[in-house]
Amino acid sequence: MPPSLMESEKDFSDIESTFNGLYHDNFLGTDSNGEEIDKAAKKQLDEKRLAAGTKVTNVEYTRTGWNKALVKFHLESDGNSVISQYLVTIKDKKIIEARRHANGLMGIIRLRGFQISEHHLIRRV
User: Fold this and answer.
1) In CATH, what number is assigned to the domain containing residue 80?
2) Is pLDDT above 70 for 116?
3) Contact (CB, 8 A) for 22 and 93
4) Number of domains in the chain
5) Over the Cα atoms of the chain, what is R_g?
6) Is 4 contained in some domain?
7) What confidence tens digit (pLDDT) does each residue in 37-91 have?
8) What is the 3-class SS of 78-89, one letter each residue?
9) What is the mean pLDDT of residues 22-30?
10) Residue 18 structural domain
């Protein structure tokens, strides 16, 4: 089994410094339901996932621009595995914005060497 970022035997305080190193103070994003969340809400969501024994595995990171990346990972809980993809914006080496990426052919469209996403509302930083 590959190593995971979040494991059930850990308390969130064990990974809080990693969380703070990963997410910008002005972080904005969407949860799995498409609702807007800030850094505090993201922290609460991750605390709940950790308490429920959710594991994050198989993290893949693909740069799509100078400050953009597509992040794909598996969430495993109670024998179920869900693959999630987020288009993220990076500022000061931290994630400042993350939008859930729809899987499928229309998720990203190539146009003249640039990638345009259906999440065109992503801020320029």
Assistant:
1) 3.10.450.50
2) no
3) no
4) 1
5) 15
6) no
7) 999 999 999 898 888 888 888 889 899 989 999 999 888 888 888 888 999 999 9
8) CCEEEEEEEEEE
9) 95
10) 12-117
